[in-house]
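Query structure, 219 tokens:
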């Protein structure tokens, strides 16, 4: 289900979207706000907060377009490896410059697809407090707009062990307004990417604050 260049094809990720729709609607009660903000065509990056391991499947099942996620390579073990690759997900080594993952992710965008990124790099408080530079690189390099996404309700603050959200519990997914990360110059120097990361963080934290206010949630 991959293209000849190693870039996942559209069929597999479409299957992944259907599976995501079945999972989230079967287990929980999703409330999706602002999905119309996602461009109907062309390359786009969904930047998602990350507090629970179900955040990815939740977004796959609620995004208006199929999503290729960059996922830590440690998740690609045993039978999960061919399954995740088969539904168009991309393994990435978080501890080094993974050129294979970079090429595949840029290929998704060049083909006009949707790339999903957890810019915090790993599960945490899901508050966009610390961002890795990868999101800025992909956005500036590709020119694709970023759509901020807040997933709320998949975890409860203060819990040491983050179990699954309650069965049939409500989960909110809030899509924000697309924005450009670069300054228009097209530069990809370290200084330019650092400045883009600062701009991205401001947009993402502002969107998360808005999402919390509009849903009445804190996490």
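Result returned for the query:
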């Amino acid at each position: 289900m991959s293209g000849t260049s190693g870039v996942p094809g559209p069929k597999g990720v479409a299957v992944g979207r259907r599976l995501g729709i079945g999972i989230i609607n079967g287990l929980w009660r999703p409330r999706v706000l602002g999905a119309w903000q996602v461009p109907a065509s062309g390359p786009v990056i969904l930047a998602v907060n990350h507090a629970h391991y179900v955040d990815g499947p939740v977004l796959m099942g609620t995004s208006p377009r199929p999503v290729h996620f960059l996922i830590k390579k440690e998740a690609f073990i045993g039978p999960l490896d061919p399954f995740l690759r088969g539904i168009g997900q991309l393994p990435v080594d978080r501890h080094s410059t993974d050129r294979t993952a970079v090429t595949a992710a840029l290929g998704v965008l060049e083909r006009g697809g949707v790339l999903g990124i957890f810019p915090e790099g790993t599960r945490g408080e899901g508050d966009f407090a610390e961002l890795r530079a990868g999101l800025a690189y992909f956005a500036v390099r590709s020119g694709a707009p970023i759509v901020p996404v807040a997933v709320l309700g998949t975890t409860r603050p203060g819990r040491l062990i983050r179990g699954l959200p309650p069965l049939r519990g409500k989960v909110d997914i809030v899509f924000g307004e697309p924005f450009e990360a670069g300054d228009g110059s097209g530069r990809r120097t370290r200084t330019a990417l650092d400045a883009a990361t600062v701009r991205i963080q401001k947009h993402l934290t502002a969107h998360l604050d808005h999402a919390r206010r509009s849903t009445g949630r804190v996490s």
